[in-house]
Amino acid sequence: xxxxxxxxxxxxxxxxxxxxxxxxxxxxxxxxxxxxFQGVMTGVGHGIGLGIYAFIAVMGLSSILLSNENxxxxxxxxGALLLIWIAFNMIKSTPSQSSxxxxxxxxxxxxxxxxxxxxxxxxxxxxxxxxxxxxxxQIGNFDRMVIAVLAGVIDTIWYVSVALVLAGTPLxxxxxxxxxxxxxxxxxxxxxxxxxxxxxxxxxNLQ
Length: 207
What we know:
Layout: H1 3-18, H2 22-58, H3 62-66, H4 69-91, H5 98-103, H6 105-118, H7 122-131, H8 141-167, H9 171-177, H10 179-206
Helix pairs in contact: 1-8, 2-6, 2-7, 2-8, 2-10, 4-6, 4-10
């Protein structure tokens, strides 16, 4: 695959990663509540989850998922319920839970980051649309793997950078003073996003 095409593809993947959404909210929240390590592991988990969808799309296996509407809807429902679960934990969190958060931060961060990506099938739709512009029958499996890994690495770098930059500034200490309020605000935002996903999913089922 040409270097020029890889550069363009990298830029598109970076723009997709940077766009705000529930993933960014969870990374920020985990960095605030669990520190740098939990935020970084959230980014790593998200990158791996996204990389799986990138691999599925680039290897041409996407038709298996996209052609089965039931699987697609189930993934959307699980993703929405996962957001509600995370939001509920945010809203009911108390300062006394901070030590537990730090102790289990790496595992919790990785799990939440991975699940947020894995149960968001719209990522697969995004990759199918993007990769279609760059992949043809002349591209071998090695080039396809490079594309999938590149997408996952770019996503990981973005969210890990967010965690590192946020955790490395005095701003994080100021934010922690109002951590409970911020948790509740982010939790409400995630519930609104989840509700929107549920409404859209129900709308598809009724059509």
